[in-house]
Design brief:
The complex is a heterotrimer of chains A (about 550), B (about 100) and C (about 220).
Chain A: H1 4-8, H2 19-23, H3 28-56, H4 67-102, H5 111-134, H6 147-151, H7 156-183, H8 196-228, H9 241-275, H10 282-295, H11 311-323, H12 325-339, H13 348-371, H14 373-379, H15 383-413, H16 419-446, H17 460-490
Helix pairs in contact in A: 3-4, 3-5, 3-17, 4-5, 4-7, 4-8, 4-9, 4-15, 5-7, 7-8, 8-9, 8-10, 9-12, 9-13, 9-15, 10-12, 12-13, 13-15, 13-16, 15-16, 16-17
Chain B: H1 12-32, H2 40-60, H3 68-92
Chain C: H1 19-54, H2 56-64, H3 68-94, H4 97-127, H5 147-183, H6 193-217
The chains are: A mainly alpha (about 550), B mainly alpha (about 100), C mainly alpha (about 220).
Chain lengths: ~550, ~100, ~220
């Protein structure tokens, strides 16, 4: 076990020790790891709720928990997963860690605000956690009025407050990224030499900046209505609950792009590295990221098709919703074209990338079904929708997240993960995922409503399959937890560039030094230039 | 040339002139509100408000001397507000126009 | 070339290469923050637009219950405060440290004056029973069937002016912070960025009020005569 080389050289992990050096750090790399710890905890919390949901759904009767409790379970599953795991995940862990390095900067523009962002996530998380422990919230993560403002007796305010605070975490991270990309690129790092991971995070940051404040003010309005009995969504006073839905989804639809765009950025990096080819159509992929960010703001009414929204508005939103699929499709085509005549290797990150492309495509296509007004009337609020968004968020984003974690693990920790176990867990996750969620498409199409803890007998077989899949998926997720921690002590020492990849992060050591580089880099060529000799071609495999 | 373009320092006189214009606009908009302009009342009020906003932004917030990026950011923000208002109103203005119950 | 041993100063933090880069970043950062504020207030403006379009008469009658001359005077107070704020920034550009403090203090005083008037206006609403959600709510000039809808106007009035006032309070806190530092001589022609970006925030809050005033106080005033 060779550890002396790593121990002698100073890098960001051993530059200082002690709790204060972590809790008061301004180093974007350490902050990325702080986020990693936090979101992993919330992933387990959300997973625990999911487990209870799936166990309840093993039988057609509502026999494990009461319907009120079940309402709390699916609400808290979504709140934990969306706001405290998915939205921070790739940007706050991988983006924080690598965006500055990828553009040749020493840190983000505002390191102290970066740390504040993490504290805001933690504080928001504590509020929501308190609400969960104190009795839970049962409104659905969508908090529709008037139930949330007037009738629910659960911990609405505490949960909403937690989300409000976490929202500012998201806004400040987005602000930090945008300013950093505009003002801190190294000499020679033009916009079109930046890795596509940076483009994706930049586009994501735009969404965070423009969308999250509307969620924040919506929460404020729910708060004042619930506490001070102002009447903004109250039908008895001429208010319209559908207005809440407009304001809520104005953020929450773009929010799904906050969750998937960074994942797409990871995939661009993985596909390129493990095909040893530049991403095909770099400019198209870069502009598609921006297009998704912009178009994503024009479609929110497709969540309101059956809410009482006018038919005319429904037509407009349905029409616009088809357009937002186009840039996503462009990306999928470009990734596929990248593979053509590439020199492909099947390391774990690449397996996750393949999984993403397949599952995201399925999820995205089913989104088109839902965008069609006629179809949506039948499958809205059924398990079809549940399957659709889990295919994208879990089959898509979480796969990309795991792919990125494996890809950059050597760089972050200086250790290799065990390739055999990693490939196995990728396979387990893929199989478990499909077994969990494919039956749900069928269930939804057959008419099983979502958010119900009891269902007709004839749906039981599919539900049992889904729960079986969930247990496989859980095993799959536990495996990386175990071997990643194992690798910190027993993993092979990682070289600077284990994959032979391009990109500034592979030019610096594993783990990187405190200020990322031993001198400001000067960039002379594009992001995926496999023709010039970049790093040393160390063991690939 | 800094990003802010602050090689240029505006004079006190400029700022005073802008202030007086803003105060005058406030008095005008208040007075005009008492005049019956029908549907144009709102248009006039909002136009005056926009003029005031432009004066504050251009002179007090120095957008006159700012970079193109800053202006793009501001325009972007206003555009996004417009998206929110327009698409939301596309629902609320068209409720019931089709004469179909519930639509 | 980055020198990691370089001592960090206010004007040049270690992550930046030049003071100009830092100033550009700070200014861009504040502008981006301001557009998040546009969207934050924007949600309430959206609610206002919806309900004013649906209930034009109710909103007009409710609007006349507000005191327009007081509102206009308060608007002028805030405009004066924007003037003194930009004069403080100008003092920073010129490096005139005593002048920075002078104008910041004036801005703060105008801000307090605005909040004071606002508090009086709110108290008036309490006394007149124009508080939504109260059982005693009653707006003169409207029939009983429209009383409930009138509460929508006042809900928006309190929500929007309340949110605005909260931003003023934060602004006042920032001004106090700046005044304390300015008195210690922290700002100069080379480094007055905090005053500059605080000014941007202050002007933005002023612009919000520039729109709130006509939208809340001046709806079809001619009807009231």
């Amino acid at each position: 076990m060779i550890t002396t080389a790593v121990q002698e050289r100073e890098h960001y992990l051993n530059a200082s020790y002690g709790l204060k050096s972590w809790l008061l750090t301004k180093d974007h790399k350490r902050i990325g790891l702080l986020y990693l710890a936090t979101i992993t905890l919330f992933f387990f919390l959300g997973g625990a709720f999911a487990t209870l949901i799936r166990v309840e759904l093993l039988t057609p009767q509502g026999d494990l928990v009461s319907s009120e409790t079940y309402n709390k379970l699916f609400t808290m599953h979504a709140v934990a997963m969306i706001f405290f795991f998915m939205i921070p995940s790739i940007p706050a862990v991988l983006g924080n860690f690598f965006l500055p390095i990828m553009i040749g900067a020493r840190d983000l523009a505002f390191p102290k605000i970066n740390l504040l962002s993490w504290y805001l996530l933690v504080i928001g998380g504590l509020f929501s956690l308190f609400a969960m422990i104190a009795g839970g919230v049962d409104t659905g993560w969508t908090f529709y009025t008037p139930y949330s403002t007037a009738y629910s007796n659960s911990w609405v305010i505490a949960t909403a407050l937690g989300i409000f605070i976490a929202g500012f975490s998201s806004i400040l991270t987005g602000l930090n990224f945008v300013v950093t990309v505009h003002t801190m690129r190294a000499p020679g790092m033009t916009w079109f030499r930046m890795p596509l991971f940076v483009w994706s995070n930049y586009a994501t940051s735009l969404i965070q900046i423009l969308g999250t404040p509307v969620l924040a003010v919506t929460i404020v309005l729910v708060f004042v209505e619930r506490v001070f009995h102002l009447g903004i969504f109250d039908p008895a006073r001429g208010g319209d609950p559908v207005l809440f839905q407009h304001l809520f989804w104005f953020y929450s639809h773009p929010a799904v792009y906050i969750m998937v765009l960074p994942a797409m950025g990871v995939i661009s990096e993985l596909i390129s590295t493990y095909s040893r080819k530049p991403v095909f159509g770099y400019h198209f992929v870069a502009f598609s990221s921006l297009a998704i960010a912009v178009l994503g703001f024009l479609v929110w009414g497709h969540h309101l098709f059956v809410s009482g929204q006018s038919l005319y508005a429904g037509l407009v939103f349905s029409f616009l919703s088809y357009f937002v699929a186009i840039p996503s499709a462009i990306k999928v085509f470009n990734w596929t074209a990248t593979l053509y005549k590439g020199s492909i290797t099947y390391h774990t990150p690449m397996l996750y990338a393949f999984g993403f492309i397949g599952l995201f495509t399925i999820g995205g296509l089913t989104g088109l079904f839902l965008a069609a007004l006629g179809i949506d009337v039948h499958v809205t609020d059924t398990y079809f929708v549940v399957a659709h968004f889990h295919y994208i968020m879990v089959g898509g984003t979480i796969m990309a997240y795991l792919g990125g974690m494996h890809y950059w693990w050597p760089k972050m920790t200086g250790r290799m993960y065990p390739e055999g176990w990693a490939r196995l867990s990728a396979l387990v996750i893929f199989l478990g995922f499909n077994l969990t969620f494919f039956p749900q498409f069928i269930l939804g199409y057959l008419g099983m409503p979502r958010r119900y803890h009891a269902y007709p007998e004839e749906f039981q077989v599919l539900n049992v399959l889904s729960t079986a899949g969930a247990s496989v998926l859980a095993v799959g997720y536990l495996m990386p937890m175990i071997y990643f921690i194992w690798s910190l002590r027993y993993g092979k020492i990682a070289p600077a560039n284990p994959w032979g990849a391009t990109g500034l992060e592979w030019k610096t050591s594993s783990p990187p030094p405190l200020h990322n580089f031993d001198g400001t880099p000067v960039v002379t060529h594009g992001a995926y230039d496999y023709t010039t000799v970049m790093g040393e071609e160390i063991e690939v495999g | 040339m800094t990003g802010n373009g602050h090689t240029h320092i505006d004079s006190t006189k400029t700022y005073l002139l802008v202030l007086l214009t803003l105060l005058a606009a406030t008095i005008i908009t208040t007075a005009v509100a008492y005049v019956d302009l029908g549907p144009f009342s709102t248009v006039v009020a909002l136009t005056i408000a926009c003029v005031k906003m432009l004066l504050v932004a251009l002179f007090f917030m120095h957008i006159r001397h700012s970079t193109k990026l800053t202006r793009l950011v501001v325009v972007g923000g206003l555009l996004w507000l417009l998206i929110l208002l327009t698409l939301t109103m596309s629902d609320f203005l068209t409720r019931g126009i089709l004469g179909v119950p519930g639509k | 070339m980055a020198d990691h041993a370089r001592a960090e100063t206010l004007a040049l933090r270690v992550q930046f290469d030049t003071a100009e880069q830092q100033k550009d970043a700070s200014t861009l950062g504040m502008w981006i923050f301001l557009i998040t504020e546009i969207m934050f207030f924007g949600g309430m403006f959206a609610a206002y637009t919806v309900y004013r379009t649906w209930y034009p008469t109710v909103f007009a009658v409710a609007s006349t219950s507000l005191n327009a001359p007081i509102g206009a005077a308060n608007t002028c107070i805030l405009l004066f405060s924007s003037f003194t704020m930009v004069m403080a920034v100008r003092a920073g550009q010129l490096g005139r440290q005593r002048m920075i403090v002078f104008f910041l203090v004036l801005t703060l005083l105008f801000g307090f004056a605005f909040l004071g008037v606002k508090a009086v206006e709110w108290k008036e609403k309490f006394d007149e029973h124009h508080i939504p959600g109260q059982a005693e709510f009653h707006l003169e000039g409207l029939p009983a069937t429209q009383q409930a809808t009138a509460q929508l106007f006042f809900s928006l009035y309190f929500a929007m002016t309340g949110l605005h006032a909260a931003h003023m309070v934060v602004g006042a806190g920032i001004l106090i912070f700046l005044i304390v530092h300015a008195r210690k001589g922290r700002y100069s022609a080379d480094y007055y960025t905090p005053v500059d970006v605080a000014g941007l925030y202050w002007h933005f809050v002023d612009i919000i009020w520039i729109f709130l005033f006509p939208l809340l106080y001046l709806i079809d005033r001619h009807l009231g005569k």
